[in-house]
Amino acid sequence: MLCSAFLFVAPACFWSAALIDDFGQTWRWSAALIGRIVTPFFLSPPPPHTTHRDQFHTPRNLALALVGEVGELCECFQWKGEVAEGLPGFSAKERAHVGQELSDVLLYLLRLADKCAVDLPAVCLDKISLNALKYPSKMVRGSSKKYSEY
To answer: What is the pLDDT of residues 12-59, one digit of tens each?
Structure first.
């Protein structure tokens, strides 16, 4: 079983062998990155300039705002065709814009999870475990088939 408090309590927690085999370095790096962001978010008081907005931060409003921010992120990639990993064709200004939109998406997601009383790190780890079972790498690697097709 995975360590459910991985992102908050035990940043050095070991992943199960199945997750390392199926997802490799990318997932471990992502978990470490999210831990660096999520932990301060939940342990710090909200910035003073945001507290007056709390009355509007209902789960529904936050979910709709999140969708809007995802749309703004998608605009960064609109009409670019396929974009390679690392964004090699993007200018410094375009990269900064992508970063700001990603930040907006993440902040709304974290706020929504908080308002819904969802332990986001725990459910992320649970979902990764479920996906590892649903999509075993030996069966799905190199295939775009849905899990019900193999």
So the answer is: 343 333 344 454 545 555 666 666 666 666 566 666 666 666 778 899
Pull the structure tokens for residue 93. 């200004």
Q: CATH number of the domain that 34 lies in?
A: 1.10.287.1080
How many angstroms separate the CA atoms of 7 and 124, rounded? 10
Helix (H, G, I), strand (E, B) or coil at 84: coil
Distance CA 77, CA 21 (A): 31
- Backbone φ/ψ region at 117: left (φ over 0), alpha (ψ -120 to 50), beta: left
Structure tokens at 117: 């009383």
Is residue 58 domain-resident? yes
Is 102 within the bounds of a domain?
yes
DSSP 106: H
Q: What is the pTM of this model?
A: 0.69
